Amino acid sequence: MSTVAAPRSPIAAPRRKGPNLEKWGWIYMRASGVLLVVLIFGHLFINLMTGEGIHQIDFAFVAGKFATPFWQWWDVIMLWLALIHGANGMRTVVNDYVTHNGARRVLVWALWLAAAFLILLGTLVVFTFDPCIGVTQDSSLWEMCQSVAG
Ligand code: HEM
């Protein structure tokens, strides 16, 4: 019967020089986890427990939040922390379960590429969001957008 080696047993190959990225990854998961509890539950509380709760969530509600630097930064920090946390967590799962080295490397690369793409896209959306793009006269936003533009 094979057993898992004790966590601190010496490994066959000596560790390469330079920063211990696995250690920093481990610390990142804990530190981002603590911050994510505050950010995610703050997000859920404000969106669902205040005002009219879930009934208030529509385009105007989101546009209002994205017009405020405080919520822009809240959402962007949550996006970055959660995507890096999720990708790094999935990297751990892939490293644990994918035994073929080539497949493992492809999957880990795909994880970071997907995370980087979503971080870029999400950050652009939050900071460049403009509710008046494409608004025509028959839209309920028309007057508000006219006064902002004028
Ligand atoms: C309430 C906020 C969160 C907290 C406190 C939290 C905490 C943690 C911690 C401490 C770990 C490391 C576990 C270990 O090494 O054994 C972890 C792993 C992980 N987290 Fe989170 N996390 C949170 C939110 C998220 C979110 C939003 C995602 C997805 C985007 C996510 C995806 C993952 C994944 C995929 C792993 C790896 C699981 C594994 O190793 O088996 N977590 N989380």
UniProtKB/TrEMBL annotation:
The keyword Coiled coil does not apply. SUPFAM superfamilies: Fumarate reductase respiratory complex transmembrane subunits. Its main location: membrane. Pfam families: Sdh_cyt. It is found in: Membrane. The keyword Transmembrane helix applies. The chain crosses the membrane at residues 25-46, 71-94, 106-129. This is Succinate dehydrogenase hydrophobic membrane anchor subunit. It comes from Microbacterium alkaliflavum.
